Amino acid sequence: MATEIKCPNCGHEFEPTDLIRDEIQKEVNSKAEEWKKKKEKELEESLRKNISSDFETKLRFAEQTNKDNEEKLKLARQKETDFLRKEQELKNKEAEIELTVQKQLQRDREKLTEDIRKIEEQKTANKETEYQLKIKELEKQRDDQKKLADEMKRKAEQGSMQTQGEVQELLLEEMLRAAFPFDLVTEVGKGVRGADCIQTVRNAFGQECGRIIFESKRTKDFGNDWIDKLKADMRSQGADVAVIVTQALPRDMSSFGEKEGVWICSFAEAKAVVAMLRDAVIKIFNAAKSQDNKGDKMHLLYDYLTSREFAEQWQAIREGFMSMKLSIQRERDAMEKLWKAREKQLEKVLLSAAHVRGSIEGISGTDVDLNLLEDSTDADE
User: What is the CATH number of the domain that holds 246?
Assistant: First the structure.
């Protein structure tokens, strides 16, 4: 069956012939070709757009990546800059610390140098001072030797009553301490006139039983005012018994005894007299303690001192101290002999010093102060 074709404009129907068919086929092919090209073109356009879009996307991604990289690079550079800055700051601080340490070391070296200098100066000053002190010491020894020589010469010629009295005072105190170790022997102050020491009598239990006041005298004549002065000191010091140890006894006494309430004895008799008086003081204390308010101490002491028991004890004591007196005399003679020997030695020293001085003056031609018997200050004047 033939296919009829209707014209869309006029409505005429006709059958297609080969020519028409060819034309239509061409037209269809042409349109197909156009459509194909169009599609290809659209596809190409679409592909171009897609490619362009992908490229732009990739470009944007690349730009973003580049931007991110730049940001990271910037951050890295910033961090590197901060690191370098901190490193530089650290180096600066290290340099400052090193500079500070060097300055401190310099100050320490300067201080150490100054300290060493001061120490050396001090050592030098000390040596100089030591040298000056040594000179002064030698001068002092020279002066002391000269004074000692003068003193020994003076004592050998005339003696010193004051020195002898002080020696007897010291010997008296030493004798009392050695003979009565339980008692307390104290020196009376220099402001108290007429008294030298006080013996506080103690019994075997350490109880204070009484006090004995002493005055030591070493003169040629006995002073009549000694008794009154010592009695006044006895009252002011609260002593119970007063004793004068003297080289010269009163004219009406040939040996120890009691006069106007004061006991008087020589140094050789002192130990025995004190032993007697001490025993009496202890007995009075014991009696008074056992009979409180029943008797008078002075009455008991008087009864004891006038009893036969006391006389017999004292006789035994006198026999003992006579041998002591002879021993002391022998010691005194030995000391006199020793003083004479030292005086001879001193004369030899002075003679040798005079020879040395003469030799030096003969060599130097100047006056040299080597006289041991002259004061250097007086010579300068």
Answer: 3.40.1350.70
